[in-house]
Amino acid sequence: MREKSIPGLTSKARLLAMLRNKHGERISGSLLAKEMGVSRVAVWKTVKALVHAGYSIETGDNGYLLDPKNEKDFLYPWEFGEKENLFFHYMNTGSTMDRAREQALRGAAGGSVFTAEKQTAGRGRSGRTWISRQGGLFFTMLERPRLAIADYSLLSLVTQIAVVRTVSSVCGKKAYLRWPNDIYINRQKIAGVTTEISGEGDLISWLSCGVGVNINNTVPSGKAVSCAEITGHHLSRRAVLNSILNEIENVRKKFTSVAVYSQGNRKLAAEWNSLSDSIGAKVVVFEPEDKVINYSIEKQGKILARGVFSGIDPAGRCILKTEKGNLYFNQGTVSLAFLNK
Q1: Residues 206, 222 share a domain
Q2: What is the pLDDT of residues 274-292, one digit of tens each?
Q3: What is the number of domains present in the chain?
Q4: What does each C-alpha distance from 168 to 182, 210, 250, 270 come to in angstroms?
Q5: Is residue 34 located within the same domain as residue 83?
Q6: Are residues 263 and 327 in the same domain?
């Protein structure tokens, strides 16, 4: 069941802010009621709702106390301040991509963010399964850009760049991009991005970018890694999410505009290429029939070409250098297998 999200700051958001500003000291119900402009009964009901949601709030004759040491890493809409009305949170759902699509068809605003504690049917590219264990960060952003469908991949590049920068920052270790949508540290996967679009004519009606980051969740040994495993301590998913969203805005401001989107974006592609560790690697391009096991080229499906990965072009296409010249591949359902990575 989705948590309700009310436009503007709700009573939960305001009350939490006031409790946190006391830094572990008690605050009376009467003062809370006065500052919030509500009755003491309304304050009590809000506290009760927050406790039911999992917050550790102590009540007593001298008021209410939120112990900073017992704070949990919640992703509820009211944790995101003035943007609260744009957040949709699910305790357990199939996929945040599915929820984003449903809300997009109902007219949800661009900038909406869909988060989940756990996904039972998380999706990667081409409908493949993304394993979504408790403790990871799983969310989807909904956008309504005024762009041609042909330029959809550029918004994915923005998100990928933002994610790899954030992961590098929070882990204190260099993360790298791999085409078409993966982020690696130490040759182990730590995050991924998937995109879905809906268009009318040649224009995008809405676009959703799904992001999965291994934060505190357990991961398959050797094949993947988490931020907690690298840093040696748990991290706040909420802080990482806020960092990614802020970085997306930074990347947009620096590299993109409606004018440059129409013909691709050379600067954006150059930035993506500078963050990749795979340029110059020998690869095969294939249409996967099933999920890739250990990134082996065995039983992957139909192999389309072999060559050297030469980065991406301004449209976000893979450039494959072959003996007969360069070949170009859109993200779509095509994947790469790296032979020396």
Answers
A1: yes
A2: 999 999 999 999 887 654 4
A3: 3
A4: 14, 19, 16, 18
A5: no
A6: no
